Amino acid sequence: xxxxxxxxxxxxxxQYDSSVSGQDEEYKEVFEQYEAILQDTAKLAFGNVxxxxxxxxxLTMKLLNNNLNIYGIEPSKPMRDLAxxxxxxxxxxxxxxxxxxxxxxxxxxxxxxxYAFHHLTDIEKEEAVEKxxxxxxxGSKILFxxxxxxxxxxxxxxxxxxxxxxFHNLAEDLxxxxxxxxxxxxNMFEKHGFDVTFTRYNHFVWLLNATKK
Length: 213
Description:
Blueprint: H1 3-12, H2 16-20, H3 34-44, E1 48-52, H4 58-65, E2 69-73, H5 77-87, E3 93-94, E4 110-114, H6 122-135, E5 141-147, H7 152-164, H8 168-176, H9 182-191, E6 194-200, E7 205-212
Parallel strand pairs: 1-2, 1-4, 2-3, 4-5
Antiparallel strand pairs: 5-7, 6-7
Helix pairs in contact: 3-4, 6-9, 7-8
């Protein structure tokens, strides 16, 4: 994750939980069904779980409630501090990101993340998927809930619609970060040995469910 995106998250840490609860009108639709997205991601995970982008610990808490063993990765210190405050010392949360992270000394069964994979370029996304494919066993899962689009036209139309509604910060975010399309993601996961499905939760967010062959 680049320094630019890390700075954004460090500045957003204190307001993050209020944003995801729908109090920010501009981002309300992005976080529609937020609790269901986290709950369903946690339900599908199993065994030893590697979570990228723990943020303030919202998904982590649901994973813990399902009695899973979680190993958290979060590059933002303010986010890590808030997660530890919320969770106590129930799990280790290490500094790192999707590409550079301390790998736990256990076999990982599930890799999960919400609202974070878009910080990587498509080239970096594929690099990450290839890296994971090398240490995941058959039947292991990758569960990434994030903003993604059915095709390039849907992406462009969403930016136009945001501008028309006066949601200029949202439009800027959509153009600055590396949101991709389902066909691109499907191709990279299948290329590296995964069966993958996509479930839509709102106009922006889908849950990618990839199973290692």
